[in-house]
């Protein structure tokens, strides 16, 4: 048995998220179907570092899986890449220790969130950035976003009804800039873990702050109160990218 | 009667091209359907500066159309923009002279062509750039592309069976660069008019030159021989963008 770690990218538009579920097209199912063919018809289960929701994209999702024999990793990558559907790409594969686990090995993640601000929007990017038709003041968002840095209880920024008990997470990078070329807002968040819909809720709140409909202090208010009702709306998934995962 | 000129952008992925045709979704049909609603149910015909093929995108297509009354152009733009399908955007509208014609008024066009070179490709860009899996030498293409500048008979670079008689056109800008951020090849062509599939055939030939399977001199050979068989294959439409149209 040989364990492989793969970095994959995918366009989330036509997927009901990463994780396998009945009656829905998922990234996991498509890769497992391809691995089945490459493994002489024997089923292979893949494990992802994290789940991504419907419409959410990835440039650097990490998965692991086992095959009975050690293979040339570049041939394996090429075969898997070319046989997977067009909206999934296999960026890199390497052999790892048998006890490596994409989800349970300690890692930090970076997410990016793209926002197409104002009108007219860019039709080519309608599945790849969230459209926000209202004007925003970048400096207000930059002032607010730094309050997310550090270790906090992020209960107020997660979806209500989440089953995870410990909602304390550490954010090591939180910034927002305007891309010179596209004029899009680019939010970047890195940390040791993110709660369900946390990034989308943080972005939804920051956009409201940028638009002047919430005070800059609202980020602190949500963190301190742990009250989801005080945060902004959940930004749509189509602007979200799982950018990179770094293992310790 | 008031004549309006509009700059529009669209994602060509789900269109069978710009021009209305039976049993197919086209840009023209969708805009005319929207204008019908905005014009109290009276049909409005739009005229485009040029036709784009299936899958081809536009940032700066120009159309003109007439409405019985003069309207506030920003309100008209907003109404048309928000009521058109998501893959069409109305960038700008202005009132023009009654004899302005998007197609027949003298103008020059700029096309851009994006190529995602090598593997793995970017799945997010699979409808927005043409994937070329082979290595290319940028400098060979840059050496060849300058031969397209100037006034030539472009018969060798158009689709066979084109009905246009005069195939002499002038290209004023022809360059190819590598985008630092995306690592994509960006071809730019400007000129007073382009023949059917001309840009895609020029790009297909240049890629073969970049890949070393045609000599740098092939561009000259195709121009001088007017022989389509000597040019490279037609590059796929999904990398092509009608970028800008400038009227004199």
UniProtKB/TrEMBL annotation, chains A, B:
Catalysed reaction equations from the record: uridine(38/39/40) in tRNA = pseudouridine(38/39/40) in tRNA
Keyword annotations from UniProtKB, A to Z: Isomerase, tRNA processing
Catalytic residue list: 53 (nucleophile)
Pseudouridine synthase I TruA alpha/beta domain: residues covered: 6-105, 144-248
Catalytic activity, EC: 5.4.99.12
Positions that bind substrate: 111
Pfam families: PseudoU_synth_1 (PF01416)
GO molecular function (one): tRNA pseudouridine(38-40) synthase activity
Gene3D superfamilies recorded: Pseudouridine synthase I, catalytic domain, C-terminal subdomain, Pseudouridine synthase I, catalytic domain, N-terminal subdomain
Protein family according to the UniProt entry: Belongs to the tRNA pseudouridine synthase TruA family.
Subunit field text: Homodimer.
Described function: Formation of pseudouridine at positions 38, 39 and 40 in the anticodon stem and loop of transfer RNAs.
Protein name as catalogued: tRNA pseudouridine synthase A
Gene: truA
């Amino acid at each position: 048995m040989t364990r492989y770690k793969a970095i994959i990218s995918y366009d989330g538009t036509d997927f009901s998220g990463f994780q396998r579920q009945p009656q829905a097209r998922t990234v996991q199912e498509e890769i497992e179907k391809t691995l089945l063919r490459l493994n002489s018809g024997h089923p292979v289960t893949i494990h992802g570092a994290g789940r991504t929701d419907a419409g959410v994209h990835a440039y650097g999702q990490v998965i692991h899986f086992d095959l009975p024999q050690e293979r040339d990793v570049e041939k394996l990558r090429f075969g898997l890449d070319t046989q997977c559907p067009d909206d999934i790409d296999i960026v890199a594969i390497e052999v790892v220790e048998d006890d490596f686990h994409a989800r349970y090995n300690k890692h930090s993640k970076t997410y990016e969130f793209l926002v197409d601000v104002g009108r007219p929007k860019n039709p080519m990017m309608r599945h790849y950035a969230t459209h926000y038709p209202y004007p925003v003041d970048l400096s207000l968002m930059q002032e607010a976003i730094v309050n997310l840095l550090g270790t906090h209880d992020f209960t107020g920024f997660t979806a209500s009804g989440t089953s995870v008990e410990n909602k304390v997470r550490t954010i090591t990078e939180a910034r927002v800039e305007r891309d010179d070329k596209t004029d899009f807002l680019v939010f970047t968040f890195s940390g040791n873990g993110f709660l369900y819909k946390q990034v989308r809720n943080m972005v939804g709140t920051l956009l409201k702050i940028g638009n002047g409909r919430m005070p800059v202090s609202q980020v602190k208010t949500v963190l301190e109160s742990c009250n989801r009702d005080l945060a902004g709306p959940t930004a749509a998934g189509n602007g979200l990218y799982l950018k990179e995962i770094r293992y310790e």
